[in-house]
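Let us work through a complete example step by step.
Step 1: write down the sequence.
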Amino acid sequence: MSQPSDATETSSGNAAGDESRSRTDAGMIDPSAQTLAPLPPSELAPTLEALLLMAEEPLSTAILAEATGTPEPHVKAELERLVSFYDETGRGFQLRHIAGGWSYYTRP
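Step 2: predict the structure and record it as tokens.
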């Protein structure tokens, strides 16, 4: 006789416990538990924007590089390009690097 499973089945037949193993205690997806393919260069800026918009706190260049599968120098260069782009086009927000992390702020 088999032991009952700790994970409950979902309507799709997957064990609910499978997904929780790739999440941190805070409920965030654990990037170390996933294999990510590197992003094509044309998708880097939109992906960085999306990650930064969803973040509840500033994200370091290292975290953004890991999340996008892109070398840190490329991520830093793209973030700096975005800073210049937002400034040159007079957006109502700014991208700033403060206290070791990148985040969006409203323009003063």
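Step 3: interpret the result. Confidence is low (pLDDT under 50) at residues 2-23.
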